[in-house]
Amino acid sequence: MAKKILKSKIDLYIISQVKKKRELEDIQQDDIAIHLNVSPGFISHVESPYQRAKYNTSHLNELAKLFKCSPKDFFPDEPL
């Protein structure tokens, strides 16, 4: 039986934008976890489409500070 994706399209888009920025800047999941004061396992679950964990608006605001960008940079220009 195939695993079911547990996140919405918008959640997947936001997570992929954060992951792209993370990889572009060579930042590890553990570094993100420390910055957000969450467990490394949480970041792993966020990046997995098969887990329910996702970033909230406070997380996105803190990530924007880390990446020196706007929180809106994680969102698409048009609705999905």
Structural class: mainly alpha
What count of structural domains?
1
Find the count of extended strands (DSSP E, 2+ residues).
0
Would you give the CATH topology?
Answer: 434 Repressor (Amino-terminal Domain)
Q: Give the SSE order as H and E letters.
A: HHHH
Architecture, according to CATH? Orthogonal Bundle
What's the CATH class, please? Mainly Alpha
Principal-axes geometry comes out as globular
Please identify the oligomeric state.
Answer: single chain
- Percent in helix: 40-55%
Largest sheet: none
Strand composition percent: under 5%
Report on the structure:
The chain has 80 residues and is mainly α. It has helices at 9-24, 29-36, 40-47, 57-67. The relative contact order is 0.20. The mean pLDDT is 96.
Task: Offer a quick outline of the entry.
With 80 residues, the chain is mainly α.
Main traits of this protein?
80 residues, mainly alpha, 434 Repressor (Amino-terminal Domain), 4 helices, 0% strand
Draw up the topology in text.
Elements: H1 9-24, H2 29-36, H3 40-47, H4 57-67
